[in-house]
Design goal:
The protein is α+β, with helices and mostly antiparallel strands. The chain contains six helices and 17 strands. The longest helix has 14 residues.
Length: 325
């Protein structure tokens, strides 16, 4: 299968404005939730906190996952199975396995094939994508996993089971490659310097999901804006206490995927709109600081691939090789 090759032209000066922009603006980053901030050149301090949040301060974590209502109390509507107990990491397997109720739980979930229809409110465009089977991580990449693979601790909030944040799109694809090599898999990406990347769809290594894969997995067979009641499936502005939360604390969807909405935005492989926004990449899912309207399965947002902030993370996918005849 041919390689997918892209050349990414990096903006040398990058600023962000509090308003969405539907016209091409040189060196402009659009933040998913439209908060006001300024970002000149990629930050050298990956733990840099959002300026607006820095003045507001952080709310101390007041409760652990153990204080959440029992999962059985949140399944009366029948939209999803009861959630497993909050995961604890087993020693020596912090990057590829989870220990739940004494049982090893695989990181990846097999997602069935299907068709998904994507839409863009800005352009009023709709398009359908046929998908073959693939695997997607049941949780966003945690700080423990990211540190085990890269040795780095970029997040503003600290906690082993918190989603890693403060990572750019480039950080995410490089982590995917390092993770693949660690497990003896074929890396999905070939990276040349800072401006060119090739994706080999036949590789079995970890990668970012496409946005079609992300939305198909998020919906898990549902057709509405969300796969369940938002307060039960997502951490967002109304229930997050304006802070990030450990993975797995909200109900999964019907396919067992947690935190598809809320907590942190997920980087996806795709460009947002190359004609208008150049190298900007797609973000999906909404974050802990977002209003409810941003936490919907169809919402598409965008940012520059070098951008880092404390409500953007990622989860990994893997291609499933077809069985040989």
């Amino acid at each position: 299968m041919p390689l997918i090759t892209e050349v990414i032209r990096m903006h040398k000066d990058v600023i962000a404005t509090p308003e969405r922009c539907d016209k091409p603006v040189a060196a402009n980053i659009i933040k998913p939730n439209n908060r006001s901030f300024f970002h000149h050149n990629p930050p050298t301090n990956t733990n840099q906190q959002h300026p607006k949040r820095a003045t507001r301060g952080r709310v101390p974590r007041a409760a652990s996952l153990a204080t959440l209502p029992p999962s059985g109390d949140r399944t009366s509507a029948g939209w999803a199975p009861a959630a497993p107990e909050p995961p604890t990491r087993s020693a020596g397997h912090g990057y590829d396995r989870l220990l739940v109720d004494g049982n090893q739980l695989n990181l990846m979930i097999a997602v069935p094939p299907g068709q998904v229809t994507l839409s863009d409110r800005r352009t009023q465009r709709r398009w359908s994508v046929e998908l073959t089977p693939y695997e997607l991580a049941r949780f966003p990449v945690t700080q423990a996993q990211y540190a085990a693979i890269t040795g780095a601790h970029p997040s503003t909030a600290r906690g082993a089971e918190l989603p890693v944040e403060g990572v750019s799109w480039w950080d995410a694809v490089r982590c995917c490659n390092a993770w693949s090599r660690r497990e003896g898999l074929v890396p999905a990406y070939r990276i040349s310097g800072d401006e060119a990347i090739e994706w080999d769809p036949s590789a079995d290594g970890y990668r970012l999901p496409t946005e079609a894969e992300w939305e198909h997995a998020c919906r898990a067979g549902t057709t509405g804006p969300r796969y369940g009641p938002l307060d039960e499936i997502a951490w967002y502005r109304d229930n997050s206490r304006e802070q990030i939360h450990e993975v797995g604390g909200r109900q999964p969807n019907a396919w067992g995927l947690h935190d598809m909405l809320g907590n942190v935005w997920d980087w996806c492989w795709d460009h947002y709109d190359t004609e208008v926004y150049g190298s900007y990449r797609v973000l999906r899912g909404g974050g802990w600081f977002d209003e409810h309207w941003s936490c919907r399965a169809s919402v598409r947002r965008r940012s520059h691939p070098t951008f880092r902030v404390d409500d953007v993370g990622f989860r990994v996918a893997r291609s499933i090789r077809p069985e040989s005849d």
